[in-house]
Specification:
CATH class of one domain: Mainly Alpha
Number of strands: 0
Order of helices and strands: HHHHHHHHHHH
Helix content: over 70%
Shape: flat
Radius of gyration: 32 Å
Structural class: mainly alpha
Strand content: under 5%
CATH architecture of one domain: Orthogonal Bundle
Largest sheet: none
Number of helices: 11
Length: about 300
Amino acid sequence: MPFDFMKKPEAPSKPAPAIDRSALLNAAQKKQIEAAKLRKAGERISTVLLPALTLGVVLGIWEGISRAMPGGLPGPSQVWSDSQELITNPFFDRGGVDKGLFWHVLTSLSRVGIGFSLAAVCGVLLGAFIGTVGWARKGFDPIFQVLRTVPPLAWLPISLAMLREAQPSALFVIFITSIWPIVINTAVGVRNIPQDYINVARVLRLHPVEYFFKIMLPAATPHIFTGLRIGIGMSWLAIVASEMLLGGVGIGFFIWDQYNSSHMSDIIVALAWVGIVGFTLDRMVATLGNWVSRGTTHD
């Protein structure tokens, strides 16, 4: 074949550029991170927005019903107009029982703090004993199951007969009401300690006190704090109910006093305080339990 001097030689083909796999991986990771951030942001917004929307709908329905049936339960607008000072200034103190809701709640919380603390200490120790000793569990468990069903106010006449004063009687009602879930849940947690933990304690020949603090308490912490959360809720219920009958300063007395004065709007404001404080107490105990157990407890 004759050689064509006029034909230009073909240029060698360029190799295909190498794919930067690391750059592609980094881009994919960045997209995943951005998507995860968007999901978290959406969850946070929905956590705040959905309850706010639900509350707005409930308040709107409540307002509509109160306007359609005047003379019954006051609506949100009437509550605001009737109890504006009570809502905007909860810190006033004019002496005696004429105080803002903050002081009534603070008095109730001080009683709950004392009674619940005693119940927590006694309940954990008693629950650990019952969960460890077989004969104690068989002997005491049926009694505790019966006593835990007794309503808080049913203990009030007995406490007044024994102690003859309002303040100790209220503390006794809180104690006796909140101790049962702490005892029962602690006993369940102790019984569910893995056998390997018990074997290790026997091999190391731990002293009973060392076993209690190093093995028993850490292993039973999720159950203990479940009982504490139930107990703090029952303590708050008990103090509100008992203060209605015992009198003096306290959120329960305030509700009963306003009922006798036919101030329904003030009662609704006080109920909102009761619910918010109860929710806060539950979240505080749940957060403490989550921190102590390093995330093994459930909210």
